Amino acid sequence: MVQRKKFKKTGWNWYACIFNMFWYYKQGIIDKAIIMTIIVLLSFGTGIIPIAFYCGTKGNEDRYRQMQKQITV
Predict the structure, then answer these.
(1) Would you place residue 10 in the very low, low, confident or very high pLDDT band (cuts 50, 70, 90)?
(2) Is the pLDDT of residue 3 over 90?
(3) Among residues 2, 9, 45, 52, which one has the fewest Cβ atoms lying within 10 Å of its Cβ?
(4) 40 neighbors 8 (Cβ within 8 angstroms)
(5) What is the largest CA-CA distance in the chain?
(6) Is 20 within the bounds of a domain?
(7) What is the pLDDT of residue 7?
C-alpha cells in the first residue's frame, strides 16, 4: 500500500521560517531561493528577517505549487 503525504496549501511553516532559503533549495524551488540569496547578500544580512517571515507565511503555498508542477510535467 502506497502512503501519500498530505501537503497543506496555507498556514505557517516553521521549517521554512527557520531554514528560509535553504529550505527552498531543498524543496526544489530554486528560482525563489536564488532571489532570496541575492537579497540577503545585497542587504548585508539585514534582509534575513523579512525573508524568514515570507518563507514562514508562503512556504506551504510555494511547495504546493512546486508539487503541482512536478505532477503535470
Answers:
(1) confident
(2) no
(3) 2
(4) no
(5) 49
(6) yes
(7) 66
Q: How many domains does the chain have?
A: 1
Tell me the C-alpha distance between 43 and 8, whole Å.
Answer: 31
In the predicted structure, residue 12 carries a pLDDT above the cut 80 = yes
Distance between CA atoms of 21 and 51, rounded to whole angstroms? 8
The verdict on residue 1 lying in a domain is no
> Alpha-carbon distance 36 to 41, whole Å?
9
Query: What is the grid cell recorded at 55?
Result: 518563507
Long-range contacts (CB closer than 8 Å, 24 or more residues apart) made by 50-54: 51/20, 51/21, 52/17, 52/18, 52/20, 53/17
